[in-house]
Amino acid sequence: MSAPRKIIHVDMDAFYASVEQRDDPxxxxxxxxxxWRGSRSVVCAASYEARTFGVRSAMPAVRxxxxxxxxxxxxxxxxxxxxxxxxxxxxxxxxxxxVEPLSLDEAYLDVTSTRTGLPTATAxxxxxxxxxxxxxxxxxxxxxxxxxxxxKIASDWNxxxxxxxxxxxxxxxxxxxxxxxxLPGVGQVMERRLAELGVATVGDLRAIAAAELEQRFxxxxxxxxxxxxxxxxxxxxxxxxxxxxxxxxxxxxDLPLDALAPDIARLAEKTWAGYQRELQSPHPRLxxxxxxxxxxxxxxILTRSLTPPVMPDSAASLGALACELRSRVDxxxxxxxxxxxxxxxxxxxxDTHAMQxxxxxxxxxxxx
Length: 368
Fold this sequence. Notes:
Mean pLDDT: 90
Order of helices and strands: EHEEHHEHEEHEHEHHHHHEHEEEHEEH
Shape: globular
CATH class of the largest domain: Alpha Beta
Largest sheet: 5 strands, mixed
Low-confidence stretches: 354-368
Strand order of the largest sheet: 5-6-1-7-8
CATH topology of the largest domain: Alpha-Beta Plaits
Radius of gyration: 24 Å
């Protein structure tokens, strides 16, 4: 048996809203909602003062305004948030190379072995949180556990500006009373299916034999049983290969398909800029497929894709290909669309692609 891992999940507290309150003293202590105003806008983040009114991320902005009429709405500034996120990432890297970012405001760290020589994962988490507070004037919460999913649950336990350590001998006791919905991958649909079996808590789930869960839910049933016991062998992955780069936007008013060209061109420029950053990374990956995403006024989502023999070489050519994909949409002409997105997918490693291309190009055609 190998020694258990030591995993930290660090989660910034109300990150976007906290950055706004830090940079504008007049917002401190007030309910802040990071969102554009408008019927189609959603909440990017809410300060803890706003959360006491029930405002949450991903909530429609109009609902947030009804719940908290006195809220201060601030449009998001992702350039600033990304800059702060890079500061925080640098702090993580002082302690370990094994950092797996999940978003701008959270990450997993494997601190089984560290650069600093601190004696415990608990001490490492405390040092990281202290450095974040000192260098960014922001607070973070942390969970310390033997694996990733337990660390993520633990980081939410003493929020905000808190820390929770889940030691191996207390895992089953800790999990037993938790609602089964706290397990990763258990959404509302799975919660309802488990409720039909009389399962409301992780302890209830653990009482069902693994074979029965597997019979009912396939391989996911076996995974559910492992999670109920606190088992998760997924390692921290410092470099997640790029799978897709995309940009999308929701319109103020629903539009017909033939009116989308200007928005497609605008979003193609944003996607192309992201792709150029990927190509400048230490381990670049090349895209092979152009994707057009659409959402109709009745919330039906469509995607159309094309893998051309020659990939676009500019934002304009990407936009042109994405526009052409509209011809593959076979809905009635009167259909209106509330969202459009332009993406690149089908990524492959640049080195592998170059090697394969070289092999094909070096082949000598047979004599006629």
